[in-house]
Automatic annotation (TrEMBL), chains A, B:
<keyword id="KW-0560">Oxidoreductase</keyword>
<dbReference type="InterPro" id="IPR025878">
    <property type="entry name" value="Acyl-CoA_dh-like_C_dom"/>
</dbReference>
<dbReference type="Pfam" id="PF12806">
    <property type="entry name" value="Acyl-CoA_dh_C"/>
</dbReference>
<dbReference type="InterPro" id="IPR052166">
    <property type="entry name" value="Diverse_Acyl-CoA_DH"/>
</dbReference>
<feature type="domain" description="Acyl-CoA dehydrogenase/oxidase N-terminal">
    <location>
        <begin position="37"/>
        <end position="146"/>
    </location>
</feature>
<dbReference type="GO" id="GO:0050660">
    <property type="term" value="F:flavin adenine dinucleotide binding"/>
</dbReference>
<dbReference type="Pfam" id="PF02771">
    <property type="entry name" value="Acyl-CoA_dh_N"/>
</dbReference>
<dbReference type="GO" id="GO:0016627">
    <property type="term" value="F:oxidoreductase activity, acting on the CH-CH group of donors"/>
</dbReference>
<dbReference type="InterPro" id="IPR036250">
    <property type="entry name" value="AcylCo_DH-like_C"/>
</dbReference>
<dbReference type="InterPro" id="IPR009075">
    <property type="entry name" value="AcylCo_DH/oxidase_C"/>
</dbReference>
<dbReference type="InterPro" id="IPR009100">
    <property type="entry name" value="AcylCoA_DH/oxidase_NM_dom_sf"/>
</dbReference>
<dbReference type="InterPro" id="IPR037069">
    <property type="entry name" value="AcylCoA_DH/ox_N_sf"/>
</dbReference>
<feature type="domain" description="Acetyl-CoA dehydrogenase-like C-terminal">
    <location>
        <begin position="498"/>
        <end position="614"/>
    </location>
</feature>
<keyword id="KW-0274">FAD</keyword>
<protein>
    <submittedName>
        <fullName>3-methylmercaptopropionyl-CoA dehydrogenase</fullName>
        <ecNumber>1.3.8.-</ecNumber>
    </submittedName>
</protein>
<dbReference type="Pfam" id="PF00441">
    <property type="entry name" value="Acyl-CoA_dh_1"/>
</dbReference>
<comment type="similarity">
    <text>Belongs to the acyl-CoA dehydrogenase family.</text>
</comment>
Length: 618, 618
């Protein structure tokens, strides 16, 4: 399996995106294709040795809570150690703090191997995202105490946003943060607060993989009247470590008042403990100068250090959320790839049935391998088109992140616009279509695919999470049609169209792709036209009633564009992989892109069939 | 939940299909809406009391094999007993043998409640199908010994078709049946054979719910040269009881040589043990007059009694398969309905977020229930349109079975044609779209839907089986486009079009539905045209390369027709349920039916993109 994945990644990185040219930039001057390859080799090896063999194990041996500790399989501990030792937690960081100064696109490609091998073992994405947020918004002391130990793998990180009553709607969070008595502003680790509240759906919220866990917690600071400010503008961000630390980040041995209430038992993605946490309810009372002694068992609150300005929490958290959304998209993509490659292996060996037509009429003929059946080829080619298309999207977005960080001002501005627009697609499209790919992988296996003796049913279960976490499908669609296509007077959409038109221009000059080029441009005229029609009345309830179908059409339009761009990169090559990429591109244009008309029709018409459905009529 | 299901069934049975009029037929003369209602009441009650409370239990407490016995939860035993005691195993049978002489459509509606409550507890469908096959093809002695005890719930039945190397391709089965010595033709229970072979994917293949298990086994009788005949024409059908019986069907206490090799561990549908069985390998040797003593531990073979003529096995088994396919479609539909109704309940109570537009801008306003969000309404209305549309299809097909059995010659012939054509749709469409409904039910629940604390993730896992068993999606599509649309010079398709045109004619006279009526007829012109285009070259490899997209389009066309027909049955009614049915119909025409163009385009073009993909290019 790993071979097919590596080949797909190598082609996209070096032949399509030409990331080796990043070495001409000052930040990456010590890099080259050789150093990038060495990173990919390492990731591939660790994923193969420490992740893949245990993917089923972490599904069957779910995290358990014995009342005191969360128990994870030994394999999870070893995988974490190997991952941390690889340096990947610090891959993109400066040499000065022990990083590799890798481009983000190479980091993302390296991490893809772990997601394909066992998506739920790893908590690396959250840890890196947490530390990156602190590097962007924390003080030097906060970075030293909380970020650097995460890059080193000694601490792990979480993001604590949702609450039982506040999932998608963060404005309704009720976790309360009050200043921790006189002098609370003077703590070397940042303004010190006491937090009380419940946080739900916290991945890796409790475990013993690391010395400490750094929770980044959204909470509200009550006003003078004691009430929590309404809306998202009242949200602040806090560092709440599981174990309190000294100013250098060394755990003091004093537990902070963060307690596991329970584990969520999930359909899939079971290797990662998902938790409900209580902050400041007195399970681990912390004495202090602040309100209440904390020694009466009631709990004075968990100690938290504010990051940045009060009320700025959501904006800061979004720094982490955007990376997380690309990470989710990549995870969905890799689950899809894993299923595709597993079903391809199966189809190449499993014998069943005979060819259609006269040649197959003779039952005395031996059966053929199922890859010889057209419908099995269809299911394989669909998977390839979905998953390698999604991989192109994720790597393209990752490359844009590098442009944002190291491009010139104009290029960085373009990259910013494109990323804003493409992030909801990078999150949503693989979540939907690589899940569909996993279903096809089951189907290729027949009954065997439905058993737990083969890996594909787990990929499918694991992948179902991705349309939910880090912003649901509906949230992504509102972000796309409600904000991103409108932003800066439509300039993000114009930036995307410029890139699409450039691809179409190149493809239009090639006989094999001239028709697809025209089809792509027509499709994008309809996608743009539908957005205008949706907003024609200016009423968001009309415009957004069909935001999800719009996002589906937009996503298919993006993937069609990227496939055409990839196909152009294969011109003149007749090796099997290039032939296969071109065929996948044809598949996407012939079987998939035509689906957008059905989705766009309801957007264009501002169809109110759903919105007008009376509740009592369901 | 049950309330919404009952209302949907009542409407379709009595207001739409008007099944109460069946009471004018001689066979059903003692029936009336009152007796039908009494059956539905009983089913609803038993399903609520004995099935629904244990649906999660049978998922977590999977069948276990301790080396001797298959252990099922006590609840499964109690559910079986209650089901058998209800008389539903014998519902459609003659009064003379203890049956209720119920119309099949009422039997199917009653069984729907069990599928919705816990799809995998029940093995009733296989038992009834097995016994029905014997009533159609067995001798009087076979019926008395093996069918009647199944109708009474003392025995259970299986269908043993697949083998490890022969799943979809039954022509490759290798189970061998040899005459059991001199006089084998004279056994009162039928010609006696010894069987040896392996059977895979056998649902309810081993358990202790009943005194005995009646396996209906496909096997081949070797020719004079000792070789098995090639192809499906060499397949014969045998009754192989787990415990040998005397001529009255009383178990003799002598075990037959049928041994459980192991249980399959599935993604879902876990309440039903799914088995690999060894026939005649000597685990339970049976002495006899035949080849080999059977006492040397080698095994002379399991004793089996041939049903009907040698070589006629597959045709006879298909008698059972067609019922099984409608049963699978109904199971898929009920899983969809269960998810729909669960997510509807959730959406009516869960509070999250605020309305779009100015009214929602004020964060001091309390959150709304999520059913007030247009995108949640969209996900609920899609589920309703999929699942109630599928329910209409299943009940329509069940009603056709009654017409086949009790209609006049012309009506029976029409029903036969329509059933042949619609069976692959009745099997495949709910398997695909009610699974999609289950995914939407998870999505409505957000993160909670992904946990095992809510039922929807299990419905989704359970439902994934339905595209696989009883003929995969690909097999159904080949059946549809390769056989059924062609049969008798296209007369099945003409029969269907006549019904569709009749509906369109009625709808065309109604202002609300005139446009949908025209759209439906245009859609069916395209569906028919695509079939002609597919077969234009007469080459099955070209015609069938896109059989699945064709089936998807055909299925959407069928459901659109049925929704329009249902909508016509609500004319003049303004109660909420009628409003809801009309809105679901509008949804289907506006959001779903337009999808057929993308599917048909590749059929029409005899697109070879998939078929031409070189294997090495994947």
């Amino acid at each position: 399996m790993a071979q097919g994945l590596r080949a797909a990644i190598d082609f996209l990185l070096y032949e399509w995106l030409r990331v080796q040219t990043l070495a001409t930039r000052a930040r990456y001057a010590e890099h080259s294709r050789e150093t990038f390859d060495a990173v990919l080799d390492t990731c591939e090896r660790i994923a193969r040795d420490k992740y893949a063999p245990f993917n089923r194990l972490v599904d069957t041996e779910e995290p358990r809570f014995d009342g005191e500790r969360v128990i994870l399989p030994a394999a999870t501990h070893e995988a974490w150690r190997a991952y941390a030792d690889s340096g990947m937690l610090c891959a993109a960081q400066d040499y000065a703090i022990g990083g590799m100064q890798l481009p983000y696109v190479v980091e993302a490609a390296g991490n893809a191997f772990f997601a394909a091998a066992s998506v739920s073992i790893g908590a690396g994405m959250l840890t890196v995202g947490n530390a990156n947020l602190l590097m962007a918004h924390g003080t030097a002391a906060q970075q030293r105490a909380f970020a650097l130990p995460q890059f080193a793998g000694r601490f792990a990180g979480t993001m604590c946003l949702s609450e039982p009553q506040a999932g998608s709607s963060l404005s309704d969070i009720a976790t309360r943060a009050v200043p921790d008595g006189p002098g609370h502003e003077d703590d070397p680790l940042g303004p010190r607060y006491r937090l009380r509240g419940h946080k739900m759906w916290i991945s890796a919220g409790e475990h013993e993989l690391t010395e400490n866990i750094v929770h980044l917690v959204l909470a509200k600071i009550p006003g003078a009247d004691g009430r929590l400010p309404a809306g998202v503008k009242g949200i602040s961000l806090f560092i709440v470590p599981k174990w309190l630390v000294d100013r250098d980040g060394r755990p003091t041995g004093q537990r902070n008042d963060v307690a596991l209430v329970g584990l969520n038992h999930k359909c899939g993605w079971r290797g990662t403990p998902n938790t409900l946490l209580n902050f400041g309810e007195g399970r681990f009372p912390v004495a202090g100068a602040g309100v209440g002694s904390g020694l009466d068992g009631q709990g004075a609150g968990a100690i938290g250090y504010r990051v940045g300005a009060a009320g700025d929490g959501l904006r800061q958290m979004f720094h982490m959320m955007n990376e997380a959304r690309i990470g989710v998209g990549m995870a969905a993509t890799m689950l899809g790839m894993a299923g595709y490659l597993a079903s391809l292996d199966y189809a190449r060996t499993r014998q069943q049935g005979r060819r259609l037509g006269p040649a197959g009429k003779d039952p005395a003929q031996p059966p053929v391998r199922i890859i010889e059946h057209a419908d099995v080829k269809r299911m394989l080619l669909a998977q390839k088109a979905y998953c390698e298309g999604a991989l192109a999207l994720e790597l393209y977005c990752a490359r844009l992140v590098d442009e944002l960080r190291t491009g010139d001002a104009e290029a960085a501005q373009q990259a910013h616009l494109l990323l804003e627009l493409l992030t909801p697609i990078a999150k949503s499209w693989p979540s939907e279509w690589c899940l569909e790919a996993n279903s096809l992988a089951i189907q290729v296996h027949g009954g065997y695919g439905y058993t737990r003796d083969f890996p594909v049913e787990q990929y499918w279960r694991d992948n179902r999470l991705n349309m939910i976490h880090e912003g649901t499908h509906g949230i992504q669609a509102q972000d796309l049609l409600g904000r991103k296509v409108l932003m800066q007077g439509g300039s993000a959409l114009r930036a995307l169209r410029a890139r699409i038109d450039a691809t179409a221009g190149r493809a239009g000059a090639l006989p094999e792709w001239a028709q697809a080029s025209a089809v792509l441009q027509q499709a994008w005229q309809r996608i743009e036209g539908a957005a205008h029609a949706a907003w024609a009345s200016g009423d968001p309830t009309e415009a957004l009633a069909n935001a999800v179908p719009y996002m589906q059409a937009f996503g298919h339009g993006v993937i069609a564009w990227l496939w055409l761009d990839v196909a152009c990169a294969t011109v003149g090559r007749e090796d099997p992989a290039s032939v296969g990429r071109r065929q996948a591109c044809h598949y996407f244009f012939r079987y998939e892109l035509p689906k957008i008309d059905a989705w766009l029709a309801v957007v264009q018409a501002r169809d109110r069939t759903c919105a007008d459905m009376p509740e009592e009529a369901f």
